[in-house]
């Protein structure tokens, strides 16, 4: 997901290949990739994948398969069929999976404070769970599509929203509406950050491949994500 002159809204961009520090586990009816800290701090962060699925190395921390075995979107797929594919993977119908992962983290990992981060499709999912689950101490929704026809403003705990100025999927008008509605209705801490000149997926970009112009924005977005989690989780 990169900043090409004519970016595909969900282009995969740079695929980061590295040896992960975690391993795959079975969490009830779904699989997950789990990375543990050498120090048991009683904290955990769930990462919700984008449309390219839980096995993309870019997003692996603790990444449950929220597609529950269904195929992720493939970069070479026919984009004319994407709307139909998306109908079978509703980011707001993941409660069963969230319940299973929360139970696993509490019982098996002894997590007492839990945060959640999501990219693209996962950003929509984060928005959903932050309205429903008070167990999440903090959430970070990264370029998650906003449904302005729904009541999406009653957040339970602090939530950071990260958007890109030149996102072909999320118009700035939607971001402005979210800002207005949260100001009117939200009772908890929140922040909305829109990054100048960036496109959908910019936070995923591989660090060493960043262009000089984009790198400060990408670094700031990643730093904001971590600072938000450190502050509230």
TrEMBL record:
SUPFAM superfamilies: alpha/beta-Hydrolases (SSF53474). Pfam families: DLH. GO terms for molecular function: hydrolase activity. Keywords: Cytoplasm, Hydrolase. Residues 31-232 form the Dienelactone hydrolase domain. It is found in: Cytoplasm, Cytosol. The keyword tRNA-binding does not apply. One of its GO terms (cellular component) is cytosol. PANTHER family: CARBOXYMETHYLENEBUTENOLIDASE HOMOLOG (PTHR46812:SF1). Belongs to the dienelactone hydrolase family. This is Carboxymethylenebutenolidase homolog.
